[in-house]
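Problem 12. The chain below contains 142 residues. Write out its predicted structure in token notation.
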Amino acid sequence: MTELFDTTAPLPAETRDAVFVIVPAFNEGPKIVEVLSELKKDFPNVVVVDDGSSDDTFSRAKSAALHVLRHVINRGQGAALQTGITYALSQGARYIVTFDADGQHDPADIARLVAPLSAEQCDVTLVPDSSAPPTTCPAPAA
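Solution.
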């Protein structure tokens, strides 16, 4: 498959500012600050949804992220993602990326995901693993 856009170029600042990174977290206290610190280097709008953690995930996230939401009980990853997405849309998000709280994802992959979206080449991108190129769904015909 031929790439239609450069997935290695850095994203312009206005694009990075329009990206909201949703981080659902459940008992990720030991890793959450490190993950958030890496994300915030390039993306100011990181939204953590603490999904009823019994450890210090919420307090650690509050110390490291601007947008931190909390479920008082564990509702599951799907509910945490929905809470984060709903919040991001209410804040004017143009692009939404979901990201694991445990450090298994590479923040550099976010630019690979967003580049085809910002170039209006597609409406959705997925990266099954960090070695794979983004899979895109074509944008609908105008």
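Discussion. The domain at 13-104 is CATH 3.40.50.1000 (Rossmann fold). Students who got a different answer should revisit the alignment rule from Section 12.3.
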